[in-house]
């Protein structure tokens, strides 16, 4: 069965960095685009970033562009989100999500999420 | 950026009743590339509907989606106790950002 397991969340001070990981299993990771979606406490869902199946194409929400970098290692079945210059408004549960196909940008499978808290 | 507005914010109904959720887009969603998700407390969202009207695998047929252009609807024909949750629409028809509505909470009356 498909599994997505996020890790790397925690409490971090404003302006610092954090790297999230998402380890995938149960499907051919290198076939699918992957996304990060976040949810601030008590709020709705916000799409954050996407990376193509081979890592050559990426895109970001304006709110994180220039600060966050999405990447993947297909040999390790792992998706990453490098988050720099973190702000209070980045506090959220971060979900990795598998695309429905190569790049449809809707999400058939989700991880359980990892909480990032940006606070001094 | 396409803005999705969901209504109502909260829907109070009883098991067995019919639920109707609205999702309105600020501009036309190309090819009806609209999805619906259900999220229960403490859980990740789950895909219900894609392509405006196609049910995801394993989703009961009491869930149905309709609409095109800027107006979309999710209907639950007869509510079961497990259906009480928050529902989100999402458009994926244009280039990024892939936006979500703000959600509708379905609560037990």
Notable traits:
heterodimer; A: 120 residues; mainly beta; seven-stranded mixed beta sheet; four-stranded antiparallel beta sheet; globular; B: 109 residues; 0% helix; 47% strand
User: What's the number of helices of chain B?
Assistant: 0
Q: Mean pLDDT across all residues of chain A, rounded?
A: 96
Tell me the radius of gyration of chain B.
Answer: 13 Å
Q: What's the helix count of chain A?
A: 0
| Largest β-sheet summary of chain A | 7 strands, mixed
Helix/strand class of chain B: mainly beta
Q: In which range does the helix fraction of chain A lie?
A: under 10%
Short précis:
The complex is a heterodimer of chains A (120) and B (109). Chain A has 120 residues and is an all-beta fold.
What does this entry look like structurally?
The complex is a heterodimer of chains A (120) and B (109). Chain A has strands at residues 3-7, 10-12, 18-25, 34-39, 45-51, 58-60, 68-73, 78-83, 92-99, 107-110, 114-118. With 120 residues, chain A is mostly beta strands. With 109 residues, chain B is an all-beta fold. In chain B, 0% of the residues lie in helices and 47% in strands. Chain B contains no helices and ten strands. Chain B has strands spanning 4-7, 10-13, 19-25, 34-39, 46-50, 54-55, 63-68, 71-76, 86-91, 104-108. In chain B, the strands form two sheets. In chain B, strands 2-10-9-4-5-6 form a six-stranded mixed β-sheet, with no helix packed on it. In chain B, 34% of the residues are buried. The chains are: A mainly beta (120), B mainly beta (109). At the A-B interface, strand 5 and strand 10 of A face strand 4 and strand 5 of B.
